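Q: Sequence in, structure out?
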Amino acid sequence: MSWAEWVAGRNEKARARGRWRELRELDALGLHGKLPGGREVTIFAANDYFGLSAHPKVVEAAERALRCWGTGAGAARLISGSRPVHRQLEERLAEWKGTEAALVFPSGYSTNLGALSALAGPQVQICSDSLNHASIIDGCRLASSYGAKVEIYPHASAQAVEELLAAWPGRSVVVTDSVFSMDGDAAPVADLAASCARHGALLVVDEAHAALGPHLGRPSCQLLRVGTLSKALGSQGGFVAGDRSMIELLVNRCRPFIFTTALAPASAAAALAALGIVTSVEGATLAARLEGHVRRLQPGKPVISPIIPVIVGDEDAALGASDALLEAGFFIPAVRPPTVPPGSSRLRVTLSAAHTEQEVDLLKKALGALGP
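A: Exactly. Output:
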């Protein structure tokens, strides 16, 4: 079979299964945009939880950085050096997360790849939640190529983790999302931390979607906190925060950091400005507004995250529901396998503090019109 035949066959198989994907153009600033042809839509699919990607202070910080340092860093930081804004951002991130140090990456995906593979080796067990993000899954796969044993435990099962840690004679890593990106539920981080403390394991928590918690505090176990600059902070990139010796290890051992051009200075400056907002009185106001939107869309339910999954089930039905919402002015693409398990295709609604109460009310009405 030629490559052309193989590619054509794979594409046709995806179409036949109803899993064909195409890029869709959306001319947007923040959470409002226009489709080709000019139709205006409100975006309820972005992870811009505090609406900071279009915040004037964040945009202005990026513009200043562009004039000062240009559009790119030029090379990896160990080759062409760090810009002052990289150091400033890392110091503020460490302060924010209550750790000794932090290290920024060009993307959250490369952060998980790098951190997990750098910790890998023979006699290392990595315990990963079954619903962890693809970047964690691929980080575990890369770690296994370096000799680590990867164990996938049932979703959010602290008891399964306890058993895995108790049975393993070597070093262990437990890795989990704090908030899971497709279901919006939270990991039992306190229980996981307690198990890690009992067995001397390292806990790696990806807090990419933890706009409203859970809040880790200072657990007694050794901890690495993975985060993103491209969701609640409205910029681009990722980071790891932890003990200084652990961050120094990543600088010297983490291939996705060593061999990747550094985070663009403008992105670092935007994230730094956004962090200043998140940790201010304005940030507390934004968080309260976001929590209010969640309560407005789901009254009577506990507020866990800004992610509200609307499970449709059938893939074609999910696409139809997405199209119906688009006609009503709401941009919420359908999420289908393999991103989610077969039979659980859904609309992944994400709320932002930048949405208005009226927009949330209109969305709630539109979702109700879809039926059960």
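The mean pLDDT is 96.
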